[in-house]
Amino acid sequence: MRHLHLIAIIFLSSMSLAHGQPRGLVNKNDTLLFLPYQDGLVTFSVNGKMGVLDSSGKVILQAKYSRLSQAYKDQGFFYRFYEEGKKRGILSKDFQVIIPAGRYDEVDILINGFFRVIYDVQFTYVSILGAVLGRWCTDAKPFFRCGLVAVQVGFKWGFINTMGQTVIEPQFQETSGFCENG
């Protein structure tokens, strides 16, 4: 019976989306919530846990996360944030874990192929493939430009490349980053 109820809700939700009606549906009896379709998928919540269904109602990702964000795209890479409790992580387009929840204190959005992460008041970068640049800094700008990013080591700013190698030694009191026109 519950399965039929779920299918009916999916169908009604799909119909309302197709006709420009409100982009969500709540069934208070089952505590079921549908969030808008994105790329043919809909995020749903059952009993406080979130998962993903396709447009036919097939469960793509079991409802196991405290929170799932919409999918984001950066230079052809799709990803989404997820939370387990209050700890945040990153999932790939096919819902594989890129950054496990709780590994870092903070994870910023993907820009130019890298997430800026913070752990114990230190900064570094993690690629869309989950590789850590391996260099921890006092502070770091949020994204790479022209293959370089400004990082602070101690009280001085310098630049590293996408391999984590120092290109310009930390020597400046401040910087606004690199730009294409020099």
What are the defining features of this structure?
single chain; 182 residues; mainly beta; five-stranded antiparallel beta sheet; 1 helix; 17 strands
Commentary on this structure:
With 182 residues, the protein is mainly beta. It is 9% helix and 49% strand. It is built from one helix and 17 strands. The strands form four sheets. A five-stranded antiparallel β-sheet has the order 1-2-3-4-5, with helices on one face. Strands 6, 7, 8, 9 and 10 form a five-stranded antiparallel β-sheet that branches. A four-stranded antiparallel β-sheet has the order 14-15-16-17, with no helix packed on it. The radius of gyration is 21 Å and the shape is elongated. The model is unreliable at 14-27 (pLDDT under 50).
Brief summary:
With 182 residues, the protein is mainly beta. The protein has one helix at residues 2-18, and strands at 25-27, 32-38, 41-46, 49-54, 59-65, 67-68, 72-74, 77-84, 87-92, 97-99, 106-111, 114-119, 122-127, 139-140, 148-153, 156-161, 166-172.
